[in-house]
Specification:
Structural class: alpha/beta
Radius of gyration: 20 Å
Oligomer: single chain
Distance between the termini: 40 Å
Number of strands: 16
Strand order of the largest sheet: 1-2-5-3
Length: 391
């Protein structure tokens, strides 16, 4: 199994660490490209380099997940106008055919966590596509290494989009006459599992889990979003020392500029490693994040000394408040998951906040990415890039 070195800052003791990951399983992303010869990912040697960059990021992301699965992703014909989204991605949702309103997972999640094969036409290498991706190559990208101030870092964008494919994103309609509705713009409606964790800043669910509609009427919903909303999953709350405030009027993205899932990228900026909060969202959704080797002092034990070493190395000045969660795999089942959080809470009470230490380059010129995650069949993705984004 390939290993990668995480350079993201760490929030939870040894849950997410600056170390190599060694896993017994992993997710394989298989891509089917629909570009015509000479364009996009099929543009000769340049197209091959683009494929290599995309597939390397996918392999690295897949190696972080302890579940063992293969997912089929269709890469729609590339755009070239450089005026809309950098890229757009979403899991296929239509094939699951939810019979009624509720919170549902996309086909990528279903394949990885539940072992459910794709549904529909065999468009991806003889199997059904479980998600789709489209990239606008009208922008100038750095496919590897450090981008210039005039380039967008392609691996960072791809990591962001593939994380959307895993289910980091919302169905909530943010404006218009159906504001607060979900996938079908009805009341009640179908929402993503991500939406089941979306709350007001005070902790009230934004979508009523009984009626599967907004807690306020459509006319009041934009004001509710403007007041601020959050992702309040238990692991995410622990990792961030509180709820994750989502991007203003944008339930599909983090409001923290250092997270990979912040909705825009500056030219020259690199965000190629998921932060502790990015990863915690995936754990809340149901993914198993592989157990890291966190014996920093090489004494044969993973304990509070390793946590202190990690904290001091990050320059945070100490262990912070609350309980030192010195062994992320509390249940000793070889992966980090919600059961570990429940174990900690049962034994010790809800842990206190542990300080974060982040660093990121920023710039004044940014290129936004989609204002909401749209889960749809691959065939519809090509038209998405021009529908909503303004630079």
């Amino acid at each position: 199994m390939n290993c990668r070195r995480l350079t993201c800052a760490v929030a939870i003791a040894v849950l997410f660490s600056l170390c190599s990951l060694s896993l017994e399983a992993g997710v394989t992303f298989e891509f089917t490209y629909f570009d015509t010869p000479g364009t996009g990912f099929s543009a000769g040697s340049l197209g091959a380099a683009r494929k290599a960059s995309l597939e390397l990021v996918a392999a690295q992301l897949g190696s972080l997940i302890a579940q063992d699965a293969t997912v089929k992703i269709g890469v729609a014909p590339s755009e070239t106008d450089g005026t809309g989204f950098l890229a757009t991605a979403g899991a296929d949702f239509e094939g699951l055919g939810p019979p009624a309103a509720g919170f549902f997972d996309g086909e990528v999640f279903a394949a990885i966590v539940d072992g459910i094969p794709g549904v529909g036409a065999p468009d991806c290498g003889g199997s059904a596509c479980q998600g789709g991706l489209v990239v606008d190559f009208g922008y100038s990208y750095a496919l590897a290494g450090t981008p210039t101030p005039a380039e967008i870092h392609f691996p960072s964008v791809i990591l962001h989009e593939l994380t959307h494919l895993l289910g980091y994103g919302s169905h909530i309609t943010t404006s218009g006459p159906f504001a607060g509705s979900g996938l079908n713009e009805t009341f009640p409606d179908v929402y993503s599992k991500f939406d089941s964790f979306v709350t007001t800043l005070g902790g009230t669910p934004v979508i009523d889990p009984g009626a599967f509609g907004p807690i306020v009427g459509p006319g009041s919903f934009p004001a509710l979003l403007a007041a601020g909303i959050a992702f309040s999953g238990p692991f995410t709350t622990l990792a961030g020392g509180g709820t994750l405030v989502l991007a203003p009027s944008d339930p599909s993205h983090s409001g923290t500029t250092t997270d990979v899932m912040f909705p825009s990228f500056a030219f020259g900026e690199v965000r190629e490693d998921l932060t502790a909060v990015d990863l915690a969202v995936l754990i809340d959704l149901g993914y198993a994040i592989g157990l890291p080797d966190a014996d920093f002092d090489s004494d044969g034990d993973i304990d509070g000394t390793d946590f202190l070493t990690l904290q001091l190395g990050l320059g945070s000045g100490g262990p912070g408040s609350g309980i030192l969660l010195s062994d992320g795999d509390a249940t000793h089942d070889e992966f980090i998951g919600p059961s570990d959080l429940f174990f900690w809470e049962d034994q010790f009470g809800t842990p206190g906040a542990i300080p974060l230490a982040f660093s990121a380059s920023t710039g004044s010129q940014t290129v936004p990415e989609p204002t909401s995650l749209v889960l749809l069949a691959c065939g519809a993705i090509a038209a998405l890039g021009k529908q909503r984004l303004k630079v």
